[in-house]
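Lab notebook, design round three. We kept the backbone fixed and only want residue identities now. Task for the bench partner: fill in a sequence for the structure below.
Input structure tokens:
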């Protein structure tokens, strides 16, 4: 009998522990790492299959803590884009959003919510979701049954619990009664018993900050929940001494928000995942303010990890799809409704004047940046071809119009089909080095499975390694793989994963550092979702083998069809 099922031979092993890289062999047996030997001491004759990793990097599979594949995993076992880019384990149920618990009669409403707040195509959800669950424990059992090409953990999202107990309208309009809070805490406890990894919530208020809203344009139910209710959920984890918390909270009062993060860390006694810090090339004071607080709060004894958005990418969109202007009352009004309704509102003189006035007072969309920087990437009306490649500001100068008027006139003439690109605002390597210098910074915020028509941030590991390590030289390979694997595993409680260690599950990535790259360079459109819906994707060159639990899921970018992924209840599996 062979000693190993698979032998990865002669690669540069970067094990995720920050140990200096070494040339070595990795032997895999029964889905686990059976032996790691330096200097090629393992014999190929002792293995059923040998993978020649000479000149390649051998590292632990990447872990993505911020995804929204809750719908997509129903029809895509590999949770692409993430698995194309070396992610072997990920967490569902972020931001307090999900589909369990959910009464059968509210399924359509739940999908409509996700069609706006996370921009997941409604028709794809209708056609592709199994809906063989009602409660959260049912949902985990469904995940367990599904074929999976990646390992998954799931937060217990708070919004579905609030809707289940209070009803949608009540949850949006008032605080919970003591009896309701008791029942919601019981449901959280039950969900954690079933295998949830903690809870998640988005609190963006009812003002300009709330950029991710419900189907009808109103805030999400968690946006306006009270501090007391959040802390009651934190007390559940404190009693259990189990789980971690993902919280997205923002208001005009930065210090108040950070004080609340500190409070929830103190009450729960559990790790908190702060969402999120990103570089703004034009405003370094923002990430530096976050970093000062992160360092201070951890020094004072709390455990608060800083999830960082490191993918260098703007947004790609049309005004027929875009919903990320919800932080502005006027733009939210204009971008609600069907394409025909949007077109009509864009031609309404009063609304146009309100949009101009909003612009003239210095307001810019929180997510996208200034409208004047939007660049036209493509048009369908041949008469508009002269604008392709130009910014809104340049078009306004050409036409002697206000920038908003110029943009709207093009959009209307192109029947909302004009393709826009916003510039990436986080391209400075020196600023990125500042946020990644912190011991508590975890790369990610991929939003995998969400905003699929606007972004391809699930490709962040490929961009991070090729940019930060190889091209800019601001991070060593050892540090990069610690950040991509071991540190998120530590935060989320992925037991035995995140490092190449004997006895650990064999989640392994083997890649060519010199030739690692995104392909194509810019996102491309594919129609591969249920109901023939489309999304933007980016693939990768340079990944030789991606392995989950000892099985190759991708070889040279091609899917093998293997589905060895597991549901990791409590991080185990």
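Proposed sequence:
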């Amino acid at each position: 009998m062979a000693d190993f099922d698979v032998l990865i031979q002669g690669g540069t092993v970067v094990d995720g522990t920050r140990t200096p890289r070494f040339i070595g062999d990795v032997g895999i047996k029964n889905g686990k790492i059976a032996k790691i030997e330096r200097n090629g001491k393992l014999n190929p004759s002792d293995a059923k299959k040998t993978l020649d990793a000479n000149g390649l990097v051998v590292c632990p599979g990447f872990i993505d803590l911020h995804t929204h594949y809750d719908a997509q995993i129903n029809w895509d076992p590999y949770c692409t884009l993430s698995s194309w880019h070396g992610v072997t384990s990920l967490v569902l149920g972020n931001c307090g959003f999900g589909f369990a618990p959910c009464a059968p009669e509210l399924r359509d409403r739940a999908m409509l919510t996700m069609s706006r707040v996370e921009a997941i195509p409604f028709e794809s959800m209708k056609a592709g979701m199994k809906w063989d669950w009602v409660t959260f424990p049912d949902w985990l059992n469904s995940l367990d049954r599904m074929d999976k090409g990646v390992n998954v953990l799931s937060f217990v999202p708070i919004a579905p619990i609030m809707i289940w107990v209070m009803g949608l309208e009540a949850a949006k309009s008032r605080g919970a009664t003591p009896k309701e809070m008791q029942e919601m805490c019981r449901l959280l406890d039950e969900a954690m018993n079933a295998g949830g990894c903690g809870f998640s919530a988005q609190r963006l208020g009812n003002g300009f900050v709330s950029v991710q809203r419900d189907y009808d344009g109103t805030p999400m139910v968690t946006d306006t929940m009270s501090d007391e209710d959040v802390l009651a959920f934190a007390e559940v984890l404190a009693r259990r001494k189990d789980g971690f918390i993902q919280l997205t909270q923002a208001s005009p009062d930065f210090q108040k928000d950070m004080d609340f993060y500190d409070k929830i860390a103190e009450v729960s006694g559990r790790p908190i995942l702060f969402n999120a810090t990103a570089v703004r090339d034009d405003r370094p004071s923002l990430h530096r303010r976050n970093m000062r607080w992160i360092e201070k709060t951890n020094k004072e004894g709390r455990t608060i990890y800083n999830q960082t958005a490191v993918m260098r990418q703007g947004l790609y969109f049309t005004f027929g799809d875009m919903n990320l202007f919800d932080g502005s009352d006027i733009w939210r009004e204009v971008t609600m409704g069907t394409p025909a309704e949007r077109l009509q509102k864009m031609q309404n003189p009063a609304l146009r004047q309100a949009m101009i006035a909003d612009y003239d007072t210095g307001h810019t969309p929180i997510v996208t940046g200034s409208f004047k920087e939007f660049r036209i990437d493509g048009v369908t009306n041949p008469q508009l071809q002269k604008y392709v490649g130009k910014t809104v500001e340049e078009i306004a100068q050409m036409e002697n119009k206000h920038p908003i008027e110029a943009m709207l006139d093009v959009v209307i003439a192109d029947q909302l089909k004009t393709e826009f690109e916003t510039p990436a605002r986080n391209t400075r390597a020196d600023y990125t080095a500042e946020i990644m210098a912190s011991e508590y910074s975890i790369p990610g915020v991929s939003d995998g499975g969400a905003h699929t028509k606007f972004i391809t941030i699930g490709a962040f590991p490929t961009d991070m390694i090729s940019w930060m390590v190889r091209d800019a030289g601001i991070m060593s390979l050892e540090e990069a793989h610690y950040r991509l694997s071991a540190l998120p595993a530590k935060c989320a409680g992925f037991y035995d994963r995140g490092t190449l260690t004997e006895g650990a599950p064999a989640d392994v990535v083997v890649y060519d550092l010199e030739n690692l790259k995104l392909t194509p360079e810019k996102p491309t459109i594919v129609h591969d979702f249920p109901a023939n819906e489309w999304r933007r994707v980016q693939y990768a060159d340079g990944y030789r083998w991606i392995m989950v639990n000892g099985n190759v899921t991708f070889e040279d970018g091609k899917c093998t069809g293997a589905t060895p992924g597991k549901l990791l209840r409590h991080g185990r599996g």
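Keep this in mind before ordering anything: The chain has a mean pLDDT of 96.
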